[in-house]
Design goal:
This protein is of the alpha+beta class and 243 residues long. Helices cover 51% and strands 9% of the residues. A five-stranded mixed β-sheet has the order 1-3-2-4-5, sandwiched between helices.
Length: 243
């Protein structure tokens, strides 16, 4: 007797084939739920926008920023200013170029009035081909009392020199345009005259575990979203607390 006839005779139903589609949809559903959970965690932990009322603050156990580190950076402003802003930046970093107008506005509105001292740390990242040469160019311009004009020129024209096959020649042209001795600047860059101090600046970043640019501190408060709105708000809060 065949199997079908035997089952019919014994009153047993023929077993139905189970489909694998149910398990497939369970897997897809699990993936969707996991993705939603990841998105929720990302949204909850997202730092506030620079215009948010949730401003960053100093941690309860945070140590003051070691002022001795500033000797390897470039400073502008009153040494006794009540607030100190420190920036770690890479001249070839696009985000740093976007932050540069805020730095310039800071100098105009707070540094010039004696309320803030600005300290600039070089942090040329290894993935940027000409970042170290640009840092050298700015330091060499400082030898001719033109660090900040060259600093601004490098960020304003980042797209030009960063794609050049001869960025040092471009830096020399900027020196000419700024009224500097371009041959002196070129020799300074070519011989890497300021290589050691730039390396020391990078060392400070490593000690503080600063790995991205721009990283900005207002006193010892690290900004979550470096930009003019958040930076100004934290500065104003710091100034008000000192009155």
């Amino acid at each position: 007797m065949g199997e079908a006839k035997r089952r019919k005779a014994s009153g047993q139903d023929t077993p139905r084939k189970t489909s694998g589609s149910g398990g497939k949809w369970m897997i897809i559903g699990g993936i969707v739920v996991l993705m939603l959970l990841v998105m929720v965690v990302w949204w909850v932990t997202l730092p506030p926008e620079s215009t948010s009322d949730a401003l960053p603050d100093v941690q309860a156990d945070a140590e003051p920023f070691p002022a001795t580190y500033d000797s390897v950076a470039v400073s502008i402003g009153d040494p006794d200013a009540p607030v100190v802003v420190r920036e770690f930046a890479d001249y070839q970093c696009p985000a740093c170029a976007r932050f540069a107008p805020a730095s310039k506005r800071l100098r105009e509105e707070y540094v010039d009035s004696g309320q803030v001292r600005l300290v600039f740390y070089d942090l040329p990242l290894t993935q940027h081909e000409w970042a170290r040469e640009a840092a050298l160019a700015a330091r060499c311009a400082a030898d001719q009392d033109a660090f900040w004009p060259m600093h601004d020129r490098l960020f304003d024209n980042q797209g030009e020199w960063s794609s050049s096959s001869d960025p040092v020649g471009t830096f020399a042209r900027y020196a000419d345009e700024l009224g500097l001795d371009s041959q002196r600047l070129r020799r300074c860059v070519d011989t890497e005259l300021h290589r050691e101090v730039i390396s020391q600046s990078v060392g400070v970043a490593q000690q503080l575990r600063v790995a991205s640019t721009p990283t900005v501190y207002v006193d010892n408060i690290r900004l979550t979203r470096p930009g003019w709105a958040q930076m100004q708000a934290v500065i104003e809060r710091e100034l008000a607390e000192q009155q």
